[in-house]
Amino acid sequence: MELKEIKNRIPKETFEALEKAGISRLTPGQEKAVKAGLLEGKSLLVCTPTASGKTLIAELIGTKNIVEGKGKTIYIVPLKALANEKYNDFKKRYGHFLRIALSIGDLDSADPYLANFDFIVCTAEKLDSLIRHHSPWLNYVKTVIVDEVHLLNDAGRGPTLEILLTIIKKLLKNVQIIALSATIGNPEELAEWLEAKLVQDEWRPVKLHKGIYFDGKIEFE
């Protein structure tokens, strides 16, 4: 699917930013997400390989909902380093028309300044803290993106993320959740729990070859 095919369904600013970044065609996973109702407000669980374009799926709907005045976007990541990386990427691509913020600091702060921003990148622990502080701007969130959602199964971070998503679904009745992962063992079950449509695809930019390494040689299947 060519990007121009959805030109009239996404903000002009988003389309121009993606064109400037050299993106002219959607990957198979991105096309499936669009056909599954991404741009119509459907919650999705996207399971596609690493580097297959999952982040762009989130960008399309996150920026669309902001520009159309539907509400703020929160992008949840598991690590501070990843949060910084995503913040810098989004700031570079969309900073000229969106107010983008990074919130990964003091867990004992409500960060009221975030009320002035549209697109907020944070860790699950930080968002949990913001909810516990009853930050009023949370009521204006329309899109919640969960990167590496398979960490729900992680003994350390999993419980926080699970409770966080449960609270979000109760707190924000019309929220659109976009969950992203390359590896999930039970995608159908997770999609049902999230009340989301499941989008799966095996396309990857570089073909993956499996083999066995022994005694200095690799024998491919």
Structure description:
The chain is α/β, with parallel strands linked by helices and 221 residues long. The chain has a single domain (3-220), classed as P-loop containing nucleotide triphosphate hydrolases (Rossmann fold). 35% of the residues lie in helices and 19% in strands. It has 7 helices and 9 strands, in the order ααβαβαββαβαβαβββ. The chain has helices at 12-20, 28-35, 54-67, 80-94, 124-132, 158-171, 187-194, and strands at residues 44-47, 72-77, 100-103, 119-123, 141-146, 176-181, 197-200, 211-214, 217-220. The strands form 2 sheets. The protein has a 7-stranded parallel beta sheet with strand order 3-4-2-5-6-1-7, with helices on both faces. A two-stranded antiparallel sheet has the order 8-9. A hairpin with a 2-residue loop joins strand 8 (211-214) and strand 9 (217-220). The longest helix has 15 residues, at 80-94. The radius of gyration is 18 Å and the shape is globular. The relative contact order is 0.18.
